[in-house]
Design goal:
Distance between the termini: 18 Å
Helix content: 10-25%
Strand content: 15-25%
Largest sheet: 2 strands, antiparallel
Shape: elongated
Strand order of the largest sheet: 1-2
Order of helices and strands: EEEHEEHEH
Structural class: alpha+beta
Number of helices: 3
Length: about 100
């Protein structure tokens, strides 16, 4: 199993912040990663993520199921007892990308 998490390019989601260019509203964006070998499957991130970014895999370990929903609130990062989650707030330019990683 590869311990390196896959990076995911995230699309813009309309919300409550004007982007100043198109008049569309945007919210903060994040890139979240789970290090599978570190995750013990406690389920905290799955249960308490306010945007429901995570799901449990067949072994009960967290996986990023909905990366486009991440708003970089950092709840998962601060509460993961195994330090198995990293979150990076995307810049305004990165948040505008609409391509998807394979």
């Amino acid at each position: 199993m590869n311990d390196q998490p896959a990076a995911v390019a995230l699309p813009v989601i309309e919300s409550d912040r004007d982007d100043g260019k198109t008049g569309k509203k945007r919210r903060p964006r994040g890139e979240v990663r789970v290090f599978g070998k570190w995750c013990k499957g406690c389920g905290l991130c799955v249960a308490f993520c306010p945007e429901q970014v995570f799901e449990a895999d067949g072994d009960g370990k967290a996986v990023v199921a909905h990366p486009e929903k991440c708003v970089a609130c950092m709840w998962c990062y601060h509460h993961c007892p195994d330090f198995a989650i990293s979150v990076r707030r995307l810049s305004e330019d990165e948040g505008e990308r609409t391509d998807h990683a394979d």
